[in-house]
Design goal:
Length: about 200
């Protein structure tokens, strides 16, 4: 090989090595951003859980009535911060302002009207989960644990509240009465989302 070709080959290999290093750095940065955001979402869900339990303590064991934002907005009377309703990975309209929070800007589905007796009998019942339009699908369960549905069931596609209930049922095998209640709530949520 001539000297020109060797120089050209060396330059190409050096360029490829630099490009590979940059691509790896970009992947690491993206991964770190996703992990940071997931940590914020986990903290938000834990705060929501604490406020739900405070609400139940003040209301004879009953969690807020109403599904989705209609139920969750009752937590504002207890002092919850609007930043707990902010998720960077929610693909819908986002806000950190209390005045702008509504069903559209709230990134969570809330399964309302439960009480502590039901939670004690089915501790893995879903209370709150990320809306289907989120990049991750975290679910806050009655016992305070948080599950990442996408991590546990990577092949399942989440397009609706009903899909979330079915995925969680795959994981936890809800009793038939609880499952029927969750399915009915999910159908209602999906109709509301579709504007029906």
């Amino acid at each position: 090989m001539s000297k020109k070709w060797l120089v050209l080959l060396a330059a190409l290999l050096t360029g490829q090595a630099v490009f590979t290093d940059l691509a790896a750095a970009d992947r690491k940065t993206l991964y770190m951003r996703q992990k940071k955001q997931e940590t914020v979402c986990l903290q938000n869900l834990q705060n929501l859980y604490n406020y739900l339990n405070l609400y139940a303590k003040n209301n004879q064991g009953a969690y807020p009535a109403g599904n989705n934002f209609a139920g969750l907005k009752k937590l504002f009377a207890l002092g919850i911060a609007p930043t707990n309703f902010y998720c960077e990975d929610y693909r819908g309209k986002k806000t950190k302002k209390l005045a702008d929070l509504n069903e559209t800007t709230n990134p969570y589905l809330y399964f309302g009207n439960f009480d502590r007796k039901l939670i004690e009998s089915s501790p893995k019942v879903v209370l709150i989960c990320s809306k289907p339009a989120s990049r991750h699908h975290l679910a806050l369960l009655g016992d305070g644990s948080i599950v990442d549905i996408g991590e546990k069931l990577p092949k399942i596609k989440i397009k609706s509240a009903y899909d979330i209930v079915e995925a969680l049922n795959t994981l936890y095998k809800y009793p038939s009465g609880v499952l029927n209640t969750l399915r009915n709530k999910a159908r209602l949520m999906d109709k509301q989302s579709a504007g029906k």
